[in-house]
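Data follows
____________
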Amino acid sequence: MSDATKFTFIGVSRKPKMGGVEMGAFVVEWQGGVRRVTVAVEDELLYDWGYNKMGLRPEQEGPTLTQLLEMLGSYYLTELVALREEPHGYIFSKKDFLNNEGGVIPLNDVMIQVKSRDFILHRPHQYE
């Protein structure tokens, strides 16, 4: 990550208008400016990963909802900076985490791949 670009996780953002997603808020310093960016995960994906409506994964090991949003968001923003793209928000859905058979990749597998930096969360924009 470049010294000129920094981001800080400031917590879970609660916006009732954005029903169906849970958002993590970040403060990003980019090219001399400061902005707030949100990285979100759709509820449908969270349910597939075992989270309930309270954001908990009962009787399962794994990150809390806050930890998940911080980890995915930090990794995603790191990828954007490495690609020299302006940091921007994103909402992750099931389509971002499908395996070759079309099923959702289990959360434990995603966390292992993110921690080992062996997963691509951001697909660069296609310029034509």
Remarks:
- The chain has a mean pLDDT of 82.
- The two ends are 27 Å apart (CA to CA).
